[in-house]
Amino acid sequence: MIAAIERSGKGAAGPLSPDMLRRMHGYWRAANYLSVGQIYLRANPLLDRPLEIGDVKTRLLGHWGTTPGLNLIYVHLNRLIVEHDLDMIAVIGPGHGGPGIVANTYLEGSYTETYPAIERSRGGMDRLFRQFSWPGGIPSHVAPETPGSIHEGGELGYSLAHAYGAAFDNPDLIVACVIGDGEAETGALAASWHSNKFLNPPRDGAVLPILHLNGFKIANPTVLARIGREELTELMHGYGHEPFFVTGDDPDIVHQSLAATLDTVLERIRAIQATARNGLPDNGRPRWPMIVLETPKGWTGPKVVDGKPVQGTWRAHQVPIADFTDPEHLRQLEQWLLSYRADELFDPSGKFREEYASLAPTGHRRMGSNPHANGGALLRPLALPDFRDHAVTVPEAGGVKAAATAVLGDFLRETMALNLDAANFRLFGPDETASNRLQAVYDVTGKAWMAETAAVDEHLDRNGRVMEVLSEHLCQGWLEGYLLTGRHGLFSCYEAFVHIVDSMLNQHAKWLKVSDGIPWRRPIASLNYLLTSHVWRQDHNGLSHQDPGFIDHVANKTAGVARIYLPPDANCLLSVADHCLRSRNYVNVIVAGKQPEWQWLGIDDAVRHCTAGAGVWNFASDAGEPDVVMACAGDVPTLETMAAVMLLRENIPNIRIRVVNVVDLMVLQPQSEHPHGLDDRAFEALFTVDRPVIFAFHGYPSLVHKLTYKRPNHANIHVRGFKEEGTTTTPFDMVVLNDLDRYRLALDAVERVPRLRHLIPNARAQYWTAIERHKLYIAEHGDDLPEINDWRWIR
Amino acid sequence: MIAAIERSGKGAAGPLSPDMLRRMHGYWRAANYLSVGQIYLRANPLLDRPLEIGDVKTRLLGHWGTTPGLNLIYVHLNRLIVEHDLDMIAVIGPGHGGPGIVANTYLEGSYTETYPAIERSRGGMDRLFRQFSWPGGIPSHVAPETPGSIHEGGELGYSLAHAYGAAFDNPDLIVACVIGDGEAETGALAASWHSNKFLNPPRDGAVLPILHLNGFKIANPTVLARIGREELTELMHGYGHEPFFVTGDDPDIVHQSLAATLDTVLERIRAIQATARNGLPDNGRPRWPMIVLETPKGWTGPKVVDGKPVQGTWRAHQVPIADFTDPEHLRQLEQWLLSYRADELFDPSGKFREEYASLAPTGHRRMGSNPHANGGALLRPLALPDFRDHAVTVPEAGGVKAAATAVLGDFLRETMALNLDAANFRLFGPDETASNRLQAVYDVTGKAWMAETAAVDEHLDRNGRVMEVLSEHLCQGWLEGYLLTGRHGLFSCYEAFVHIVDSMLNQHAKWLKVSDGIPWRRPIASLNYLLTSHVWRQDHNGLSHQDPGFIDHVANKTAGVARIYLPPDANCLLSVADHCLRSRNYVNVIVAGKQPEWQWLGIDDAVRHCTAGAGVWNFASDAGEPDVVMACAGDVPTLETMAAVMLLRENIPNIRIRVVNVVDLMVLQPQSEHPHGLDDRAFEALFTVDRPVIFAFHGYPSLVHKLTYKRPNHANIHVRGFKEEGTTTTPFDMVVLNDLDRYRLALDAVERVPRLRHLIPNARAQYWTAIERHKLYIAEHGDDLPEINDWRWIR
């Protein structure tokens, strides 16, 4: 069928009547005109008079190359939406083509409803053009400011994962996803095609990938445009898709071909959904359709500039004509603009003529007004069980052991159960949900899986709400798409490997920051990370798995967005998790171990402690001014600190110690830097103004210094943490290798309390004796001294 | 042919004679035995007496599941090497299977030559077993400690990119690359298959991907194992590969099938190379062979433990039998070990019997002794032109403009030219070499490209030495593989998007750190980044492209590895680049802009300045103790600082200013923390002990605070830098938005010099006037005030 369409010549048969073809082509011309206008013009929007150099912006910014293709797709999706009353959004991978999406939302009316100053008139068009890439105006990419978008697309690679995230649990939604052929070379995108093994046709919506093969990146051809149709077809088959090719540079032919193809793929999607939803015979995983749209880069733009080919080459990528000191360039731009015959499309007042405007969908069917793309508007709060019901009973501090994430797992199981009907909560993780001890959720839901199954598999379920795939990129991308369309989720990940999505986190944090300043963008659920299997208990995997730096990365994000929690025990983890799942518009990072560890706080104390963010642990502290503050953040550092306190008390009966535990890392920053920051008086009440502070920290020590550098007692804060020493060894040896062990912390305290100076020689001797004993024991037994693990904190 | 092999039954025809089959099977049993021994045993290595609980390690660590497959592949590659005298290395994607590679290098003798204490005897075997995952022993993964490895494999996804990097410019080398089917789900790996479009058969070696489809990850089936053979075949075709399937769980059949398949694929590889090298007719890009090896996870291990299936399931992933308080488990482990009939394979002294041992290659043909896997041993220094020949003439500071990276481009062109014959230098970048103004290299070499070409393409060349693909993962992975096999390179990248490879950088930095402590690992060329198109000049792309955080990430790496340079102008960039290209075993990050900017130092001054790492710029400073130190690091901050100094001098004639520029960021750290750190006296000589320091910084301000927190004058250091404010706006507005502009810096100085306190009200008024004027101008003109760009620094 495709071949037939391609063979057909001008005016050949196709689903579009001649009048419809004419009007759609007009609509496309209008979108292209408005796109060029945005890139170039600061005045004279309707070309009422000859173009002058003063009409052209001084700084020419924008990406023309991808834009006409995006405009074409938008116009054709509009037809499909109108004809079939579709609930559809578009994810625009080539987000650099900002002017195209702005133009289309303007033409359909969404833009003006969102930004009333940009009227659908001559004056509005003038402002529309001028604001683009203009200081104080709008960015050049599709961005949070763009109505209908859930995807920035400045950093390439995440469109398809976002599209799947949006489609999950939205059975009536179709997510059209335009993928640039440049973007398709990235790792994240290359992996994303396999997302179709995790989308369940009865429960989830459909994703329609449209690979826009315009052939070039900034300076090179794209790989997928140069492997031939046969190989590309096999690649798509291998990814589980049926490709439909639309190719050409003759608009009439491409219009008919694209329209016919869209009709076909919609039919396929509906057939797949009907089969799956109506109990028809199950043929296994469906082969979902996708479209390859092969049109020239910078289509309808200048063919040749300064004697060099532009249209259909990489030279069309950004601004095809520049340097308007050359009058020939100005003339060429004018010809280009005139070629769209805007006077046929807009009336003299600048209003889009009704014969074209009427092609657009109306109301929420317009992609620029679809509420799924402003997910906060659809957000329903998560139903949360009382986390106190899952608390560990702690008869006395250090009196009982529990695996924190397993306790959380019980809470998550109940959360999952409570929200099964609402279908708005999922867990995401790279094959590690059970390894991270959250497997209790499998009591109420399984792992999503549409591929083949075998008898030995466990918990695989087409309706599963746990998303496991060995790709942190997919976990993150799916979750982002899910959140941005108004749902909730949690990503549990090995701490070291969450760095794989550093750059995705950047982009999401930027999105949240910008959205916060856009009144019509409603708040969405926070992006919640549970980092477990953390640096201090990767002793079996070794150095490659030992890296606590993700919290450093997040701490660089804007204070309005970044939240970091280091709960010291299971009850604190419960309290923190409950808080995070209720929060909006944040990136919450929770770091918590999965190993059975000693517990410190009963649930009421845990709630009070986590609410304050940091506090003196009175049960382990002496009243009044201490000799030394033993501070800690993180579960393993807390354990070592408590053990150090015990050692100090045993050996120095009259020592006065204050134990301060920090759960919410951002309390360390001044209030001027972060809303969670303690005011200076509260900070001093914890850390004193002049006493030595021995701070045992989960991550790199410098992070504490960075957060506290403005604090009065900063010079006295002595931090121990990870210093990049690791290997496959025992858990206790890990803290020894990094000088975070109890013996070292105790010695640190003795060395820094002036009145204990006389004890230093003896303390050092004791320290070295303990370390030597440890080293000898592990070399002989391959495991830690029993006392390390049997230890109990005693007051 | 494959089908025929699969149909054949036991003892069916195949390339292996019955005796060869028996011996190879014995060799495999030996490797498996040694693998299980490493995971479990701390004594009784040859099972001379019944296994006792005391013989078993207390902490059982390791990954059994992937290991028998790795052992099988190793034994079969050995046969191929011996029969064809191949120069071959293996990259082991499932690096968790450490015991397998250790076992094989031990069996072939490489291990003992590298580590003489691990003799090929009973005692050696005892130590071999005990050291594995033992404190002070060896890590559980394939690691720098493992002979023959260039790949850790703890973090999954990078094996295939490393393999291609190793193969480039090594025409006689074959790189076998084992890819786990779990790893295959990652983004980096999914993109890596397309590397075959960048490998040139006459010039480069061959990569033989072996996808080990053992079906399961930690807890789930793998995607590629559950899409059926047809889809997997199409996927590989789509990636440009011809797959050959080897499937089964009967060792005899699999041995014959794998041997036959290896013969076939080697024949294919040689045919491809012969065609390309001997001027035979060019059929375009070859379809390279690859192997899909489908064998049970944990093959030859226990089938059922505690009533649950283990072999062939995810339960075989790590340690299949644990908890030896159950005596049945001990018996089962003993049976498992005995099943390999080690007494047939090793003589009573523990020596591997000659009839098996003789199957291994010898000397450098052994994969554990191949010098390519210890690249430093093959490293030849790069021939470098005199960078002074490319210097910008700077008649006076601020007297001339130059685009720093374009100047570097000239130097790189000469470097490329000088090393064309040695064929050991390449540039890597995601489609941005020209965008980053390094296009002068195209005078001497093109961009590697084996896919289709079109008339409009420029600089594509099968023999090109510039590697461009829109995947930072591939650029990084290829470069790592290239460096680890003893060559040189530079990765130029947009600053914001280099975060995509944060996690790869972590793993490479860890590799370098560990290698530094391994005497037989020879130093390799440093991993050099040029981060350009940086945060301050992404004004046209906006916030998504604005992120200077990569240097924070690198600053967390160990001081022995991390180097960060912020050259303020073109001549400093030349000096720094020359230094980096000569260095070994570092990660060098250079941040430099590509826009034409004012130049400050002549080449001799630049060399002196860069050698010192930081210095007073006397030409801009007053002699003696200053009122204020105006410090800067980075090209844009330096420009703004110089402009601020001019403003201050114009307005406050008697002000005493010292300008300090920092090129090598690590000089800020104390010497105790970093070898580049200035000693405290030198630091004080620059920054004073008590004067206010206004520090204009390229990145996040907190990085300077973090590096200087131990410095005496730290409390007086006031840092301006990126505070996450950005959008599409003018270049100068970017610095204004982040309070890094000249007006703000000048005001900062006035506000902090006590004797100028009386001037503060007036200075603030002037500041606001300037900012308002700027804002009004850009809102009206869409571009910066002419004076911003026309500015010249005057003393």
Automatic annotation (TrEMBL), chains A, B:
One of its GO terms (biological process) is carbohydrate metabolic process. This is Probable phosphoketolase. Its cofactor is thiamine diphosphate. InterPro entries: Phosphoketolase, THDP-binding, Transketo_C/PFOR_II, Xul5P/Fru6P_PKetolase, Xul5P/Fru6P_PKetolase_C, Xul5P/Fru6P_PKetolase_CS, Xul5P/Fru6P_PKetolase_N, Xul5P/Fru6P_PKetolase_ThDP_BS. It is an enzyme of class 4 (lyase). The keyword Flavoprotein does not apply. Keywords: Lyase, Thiamine pyrophosphate. It holds the Pfam family XFP_C. Residues 17-377 form the Xylulose 5-phosphate/Fructose 6-phosphate phosphoketolase N-terminal domain. Its EC number is 4.1.2.-. Residues 594-793 form the Xylulose 5-phosphate/Fructose 6-phosphate phosphoketolase C-terminal domain. SUPFAM superfamilies: Thiamin diphosphate-binding fold (THDP-binding), TK C-terminal domain-like. PROSITE patterns: PHOSPHOKETOLASE_1 (PS60002), PHOSPHOKETOLASE_2 (PS60003). It comes from Sphingomonas alpina. Belongs to the XFP family. GO terms for molecular function: aldehyde-lyase activity.
